[in-house]
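Deviations from the work plan: none for this task. Representative record:
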Amino acid sequence: MKMSEGVEWALHTCVNLSWTDPGDAVPAARLAEVFSLPTAYLSKHLQALARAGILISTTGPRGGFRLGRDPASITLLDVVTAIEGPEDAFRCRQILKDGPGGRPDVDYRRTCTISQAMRKAELAWRTALAEQTIADVRRTVEQRDPTAPEATRERLR
Amino acid sequence: MKMSEGVEWALHTCVNLSWTDPGDAVPAARLAEVFSLPTAYLSKHLQALARAGILISTTGPRGGFRLGRDPASITLLDVVTAIEGPEDAFRCRQILKDGPGGRPDVDYRRTCTISQAMRKAELAWRTALAEQTIADVRRTVEQRDPTAPEATRERLR
């Protein structure tokens, strides 16, 4: 089970954009260049973030991407969900329907004990992701490396 | 991000085997038949469980699979790890190495704030899986459907 690389790219890009001047849009090519990422592939993920309202995409000579809302209002779960989709990693296929006493009219995704146990764990993961924001990450990065904001701003200019 | 169907099959099969008489091995074909699963594909997963010590595989006329240890000592995490492998879903590719001030000698999988935040969430998921055992699942199933153990035993005989 593997998450898309796009999650790593998207999270770092959101932190980077949180350091730019508010209102300034950064072209996808510039955002990709910071980490030597392939622009076209990063663009695809940036568009997914824009569809989720995490980024705002503008066109024109000074167009590009900027944060769609305050970094304190963007959780890691928001970013992961925008890239990976909202579906659970464990997808109950309701094999109990074909088991002893299985009933075609029961939704085992809801009633099966195993399905519930797996969902409980997935909820713990999502909760932990939802408890951390881009602002939290940014704060920790700045504490560890006070030069990061300015260095990043330079590279994105 | 999607978990293998094999996880669902493996968990249900472990619960089913916990209801058989201790020492009795059940052929893969019989275990597959209970849920109308493809035997060859289920076998592959059962062998992964055997490699992890969750099942014991025996050959010969009365051969097959049985639990390798007490159901109270088999956690959902054990089963998930046996099927999916031990790697995290989020795989840090250390893109900070190519970022502003990135250093080739630093292991960003350990030091990157985003990598740490993602690992924290994954740990919450693993902890929740580790807190639930096959015996816990079996107990809940039996409370909800007291006929399940005997019905399953019949099908596996």
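Strands of chain B lie at 55-58, 64-67.
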